[in-house]
Automatic annotation (TrEMBL):
Heterotetramer composed of SEN2, SEN15, SEN34 and SEN54. Interacts directly with SEN54. Belongs to the tRNA-intron endonuclease family. It is an enzyme of class 4 (lyase). It holds the Pfam family tRNA_int_endo. One of its GO terms (molecular function) is nucleic acid binding. Constitutes one of the two catalytic subunit of the tRNA-splicing endonuclease complex, a complex responsible for identification and cleavage of the splice sites in pre-tRNA. It cleaves pre-tRNA at the 5'- and 3'-splice sites to release the intron. The products are an intron and two tRNA half-molecules bearing 2',3'-cyclic phosphate and 5'-OH termini. There are no conserved sequences at the splice sites, but the intron is invariably located at the same site in the gene, placing the splice sites an invariant distance from the constant structural features of the tRNA body. GO terms for biological process: tRNA-type intron splice site recognition and cleavage. The active site is at residues 279, 287, 318. Keywords: Lyase, tRNA processing. It comes from Candida glabrata (strain ATCC 2001 / BCRC 20586 / JCM 3761 / NBRC 0622 / NRRL Y-65 / CBS 138) (Yeast). InterPro entries: tRNA_endonuc-like_dom_sf, tRNA_intron_Endo_cat-like_sf, tRNA_intron_Endonuc_cat-like, tRNA_splic, tRNA_splic_SEN2. This is tRNA-splicing endonuclease subunit Sen2.
Length: 368
């Protein structure tokens, strides 16, 4: 419960725009001028305006790929806490490398998380080990059942053995969950290479950067201007070998903007073989419910492609959504002109979004 309350407070706002809390504004009296001054002060104090725009660093690697980075530690924390933007280059999602390193080396008692909590990477590692142990225990019990069947036991005895094995597995799984909840991390001794992580003041260096997807950078520049770069300057860094590459980016941004405007938390879906994952609130609260594939309205594939994508999505307990983007006859010349002008408002007016829910038909489950 404490962790849930902590997450609710930390991730209070779904976007880097904070509505004013009306309860924080005092009552205004028309006969008391001081109450007006107090009201204006509280209004200003609760607007949550950024003192400065977030710094975006753009780097290109040897292959010509454009990397959109946020390197300031506070900026990374702000983008993650207010919409779950970006991915830590040395983490699974949230940039927690410094927190994990400090916790491992016991440098600081990091205060960004409630006491006793573990980072996502460690939780995932422990869960994988527990799942492997659970499978081994289940195989062992299945072997015992097969050995008992070879001894020509009665049906009643077999049923009793199966129930006993089920109860053992339930107890085994319950003990694993208790072990995970009660586990406390202990830091190993400092290694020689760890000494290079400290700066002159004895603090851990901030070596991790947050990388934004191109659509995220465009959204945070065009839709919500919180980055210190203008949209015209940002799009100059995107280089395309062919017009089709630009069309793909514009289609993906149209879909991204569409779902963000509908209050969904949109994250990269490359881990599950799709374009985006949709969360109701965000990764700390629940798993993604939908896997989004962005397609052109004329695009089609053979049945093996649809089956492959749907199988991965359903295996991860996600509903596959085929998001078709219709450009309504937008010509290449108009697309290039509007793109180079940075006129995304007029450009997005040419697109329409249509969605199709794709589900696998399973004879054993879909009889009714």
């Amino acid at each position: 419960m404490a962790k849930k309350q902590f997450n609710t407070k930390r991730y209070k706002f779904p976007l880097p725009i904070h509505p004013i809390d009306r309860n924080a504004l005092p009552v205004v009296s028309q006969y008391n001028p001081i109450s007006w001054l107090q009201w204006l002060y509280c209004l200003y104090a609760n607007t949550n305006l950024l003192p400065k725009k977030l710094t975006l660093t753009i780097r290109k690697d040897e292959q010509g790929w454009c990397h959109l980075l946020v390197e300031d530690e506070q900026d990374m924390k702000y983008l993650w806490n207010n919409g779950f933007f970006g991915t830590g280059q040395m983490s699974r999602s949230e940039p927690t490398w410094k927190f994990r390193t400090e916790k491992r080396l016991k440098v600081n008692d990091a205060g960004d998380k409630p006491s006793g909590t573990m980072d996502l990477e460690k939780v995932t590692e422990i869960r994988r080990i527990q799942r492997l142990a659970f499978k081994k225990e289940r195989l062992r019990l299945e072997g015992e059942l097969s050995e008992s069947r070879s001894q020509n036991i009665s049906a009643e005895q077999e049923t009793q053995i199966i129930e006993e094995h089920r109860e053992k597995l339930r107890v085994f799984r319950s003990d694993q969950l208790k072990e995970l909840n009660n586990l406390k991390l202990t830091a190993p001794e400092t290694r020689d290479e760890d000494l290079e992580l400290y700066d002159d003041s004895g603090e851990i260096r901030s070596l991790e950067s947050m990388e934004l997807m191109p659509v995220e950078a465009i959204f945070l520049t065009f839709a919500l201007p919180v980055l210190d770069i203008k949209i015209n300057d940002l799009i100059k860094h995107f280089e395309f070998q062919h017009i089709e590459e630009l069309k793909v980016l514009v289609r993906k941004y149209a879909a991204y903007h569409h779902y963000r405007s509908l209050k969904w938390c949109v994250r990269s879906g490359i881990k599950f073989g799709c374009d985006y994952l949709l969360y109701k609130r965000g990764p700390p609260f629940q798993h993604a419910e939908f896997a989004i594939m962005v397609l052109d309205h004329t695009e089609s594939h053979d049945y093996t492609w649809y089956s492959s994508v749907a199988r991965v999505a359903s295996g991860a307990k996600k509903t596959l959504i085929l998001c078709y983007i219709d450009d309504q006859g937008l010509t290449n010349e108009t697309l290039l002109d509007l793109w180079h002008q940075g006129n995304l408002v007029k450009l997005l007016q040419h697109f329409k979004v249509a969605e199709v829910t794709y589900k696998r038909w399973i004879p054993g489950k879909n009889r009714d």
